From TrEMBL:
It comes from Coccomyxa subellipsoidea (strain C-169) (Green microalga). This is Starch synthase, chloroplastic/amyloplastic. Residues 303-446 form the Glycosyl transferase family domain. Keywords: Amyloplast, Chloroplast, Glycosyltransferase, Plastid, Starch biosynthesis, Transferase, Transit peptide. CDD domains: GT5_Glycogen_synthase_DULL1-like. Its EC number is 2.4.1.-. GO terms for cellular component: amyloplast; chloroplast. It comes from the Eukaryota. Residues 2-245 form the Starch synthase catalytic domain. GO terms for molecular function: alpha-1,4-glucan glucosyltransferase (ADP-glucose donor) activity; alpha-1,4-glucan glucosyltransferase (UDP-glucose donor) activity. It holds the Pfam family Glycos_transf_1. SUPFAM superfamilies: UDP-Glycosyltransferase/glycogen phosphorylase. Belongs to the glycosyltransferase 1 family. Bacterial/plant glycogen synthase subfamily. The keyword GTP-binding does not apply.
Length: 486
């Protein structure tokens, strides 16, 4: 196939979360499987990997004529196409910021530019064209693409055989606004009903995600569990009825992980300062060295036997950081060490600082984000905490298992799909799970994990090894994407 993936962010050039990782890794996996693959993303700054193509395309966006340029880089078998326009420049650290009109303009522009890219960008000397062409759009920011493909092309016998897939990463964000704004998106009037949504609080309004879900030929949620949760009142965020109606074209595919970036055997962040690379065959010595190095780097007492727990992620309600805070005194009383890395809500950032200040010998709260430290926490900790209230897929639990760090997770979405609960009687499982997002249930799961770590170290080691020996690669996920029947 000729596959064109479209997203608002793409690692390593731009990233705010899991979507950036997906856009950076899935195209490479599809290319390895023999598909001609293009990733279309905004050009937020001057990326040295992207070369000026000289291609300029004029298009009408929200009532005005504008021109976009295309930069191109060929890396690991993938054609990375960066859309160049003034509205993207300088937004590297604020990808989704701005007023509603500027956000809509960027989204519409990206979708229109992506639809034109296969025709105009000479990747390898020849554009893709529309033969065996599949667009994979990601989240509401690109949900206009399936609508534009149908309304502006297929209705006029252009790209007749092109197909669109819309991937659902997070249903909580949908592109809502006044219904009158649909007219500014160059949508034919007879398509307006796709955008209409009524709720008891906001009344009738525009919903871009709804239109994309209906117009797309196939839908993919980023885990099996999330595909089901999206169809519930709690998980659908007002669009559960739409997804139930279109369940025939919805399936769940769990994200993979990029072993080129996340592998304890080759991780460059573990090659200095007392850390070391390791694999399943030398996990005991390797993890011990990384744990001691992490404790030393963060100024915690070096103790190989103390349970060391970590958290990496955004500090917000979704991630359940408050559940860690609510169990902090209990964890300290248990004699555990705790390392937290993240940024987000002011009150939760302050909680990290307060926890460290109150138990300086047992806790470190790093406010902000540091890629090297994230890798070292993943390698040095015994357990990783992910008490997310909802988690469409999640990647940190995959990284943790690959590094022999046992995840303790709330059994929702992709966490439920990827972390199999430990069964001491059958000696199975890859982590500990809990079913209710409350402090007590979370405490029970942590207590069982810590008890197993202290009293049954061989069983705990077996949990680590089962996690490490899984195939968590994007290659498997790419194979499942191929099976999305179009």
């Amino acid at each position: 196939m000729n596959v064109v993936l479209v997203g608002a962010e793409c690692a390593p050039w731009s990233k705010t979360g899991g979507l950036g990782d997906v856009m950076g890794a899935l195209p490479k996996a599809l290319a390895r499987r023999g598909h001609r693959t293009m990733a279309v993303v905004p050009r937020y700054s001057n990326y040295e990997e992207g070369w000026e193509t000289g291609v300029r395309v004029r298009m009408r966006v929200m009532g005005s004529d504008t021109e976009v340029g295309y930069f191109h880089g060929y890396i690991d078998g993938v054609d990375y196409v960066f859309v160049d326009h003034a509205c993207f420049q300088g937004r590297q650290g604020d990808i989704y910021g701005g007023d509603r009109q500027s956000i809509l303009f960027r989204c519409a522009l990206l979708c229109k530019a992506a639809l034109e890219a296969p025709w105009h960008v000479p990747c390898g000397g020849a554009p893709y064209g529309d033969e065996n062409l599949v667009f994979i759009a990601n989240d509401w920011h690109t949900a206009l693409l399936p609508v534009y493909l149908q309304a502006h092309y297929r209705d006029y016998n252009k790209m007749t055989f092109a197909r669109s897939v819309l991937v659902i990463h997070n249903m909580a964000h949908q592109g809502r606004g006044p219904l009158a704004e649909v007219a500014g998106l160059e949508i034919p009037e007879h398509y307006t009903h796709l955008f209409q949504l009524y709720d008891p609080i906001g009344g009738e309004h525009m919903n871009i995600f709804k239109a994309g879900l209906i117009a797309a030929h196939r839908l993919v949620a980023v885990s099996h569990g999330y595909a089901w949760e999206c169809q519930t009142a709690e998980g659908g965020w007002g669009l559960d009825g739409v997804l139930r109606e279109h369940a025939w074209k919805l399936r769940g595919i769990v994200n993979g992980m990029d072993y080129a970036e996340w592998s304890p055997q080759s991780d460059p962040h573990l090659r200095s300062d007392g850390y070391s690379n390791y694999g399943p065959d030398d996990i005991a010595a390797g993890k011990a060295r990384c744990k001691a190095a992490l404790q030393r780097e963060l100024g915690l007492p070096e103790d190989p036997n103390v349970p060391l727990l970590g958290f990496i992620g955004r500090l917000d309600y979704q991630k359940g950081v408050d559940l860690i805070r609510d169990n902090f005194d209990w964890l300290m009383h248990e004699g555990a060490q705790l390392v937290l890395l993240g940024s987000g809500r002011d009150d939760l950032e302050n909680s990290l600082r307060e926890m460290e200040a109150s138990r300086h010998q047992q806790c470190r709260g790093w406010v902000g984000f540091n890629v090297r430290l994230a890798h070292r926490i993943t390698a040095g900790c015994d357990m990783l905490l992910m008490p997310s209230r909802f988690e469409p897929c999640g990647l940190n639990q995959l990284y943790a298992m690959a590094y022999g760090t046992v995840p303790i997770v709330h059994a929702v979405g992709g966490l439920r799909d990827t972390v199999h609960p430990y069964n001491p009687y059958e000696n199975t499982g890859t982590g500990w799970t809990f079913d209710w997002a409350d402090a007590g249930s979370f405490r029970d799961a942590m207590g069982n994990a810590i008890y197993t770590y202290r009293e049954f170290r061989d069983s705990f080691r077996a949990v680590q090894l089962r996690g490490m020996r899984q195939d968590l690669s994007w290659d498997h996920a790419a194979e499942l994407y191929e099976q999305v029947r179009l």
